[in-house]
Description:
11 helices
Amino acid sequence: KVVDISTSKKIVPVSLYTLAQSCYFTAQYRNAILAFLKCIDLYPWFRYKDRAQFWAGESYYHLKEYALASEMYRLFLKNFPKHELSDDAWYGQAWAALGLDDNELALADFQVVLSQYPHSPLRPSALYWSGRVLVDLQRLTEAKPLFEEVVKKFGDHPLGAHAARSLGWMFFQASVFDKAGIYFNIVEKTTTDDGLRAEARF
């Protein structure tokens, strides 16, 4: 059901926030943004103001409005630097930077996740995608240890096999075929994705 936020002018803040969440999780991102921002603007004392700001950023990201998403994440981090969603905000900001083709900023934001939140569940993803950005920038020496950490410490993570595939091809292209084979074998053993397994054969 499509929600008309314009009819929600007198709604209480908790109900407005719930409505915003409903819009977000049904991909009505524009309505979600309107409702989240109303929570922030009309009810500055609202206990979920922090989460409203974060989810507004997520909504902008889904709409591919990356500059606005980045702005919202930055405001969230400025206003709530110690929040339990801070690592998610830095991670989201990195992806917004990638959407704006700013690889260096994305790397810096991913690095904050890695350095300031070492136990974050986002760590394997931040490692892997940092590595991929570095590969795109031809900085293979820097990418290699990031992929290696994903494989060694997070082998069961969905990106573990992808990291092994990346290492396999890095060693293959460097003509270090024995190590390439080791990582390609890891791919074969850790994923059922036929496309990924096909990429790990030579």
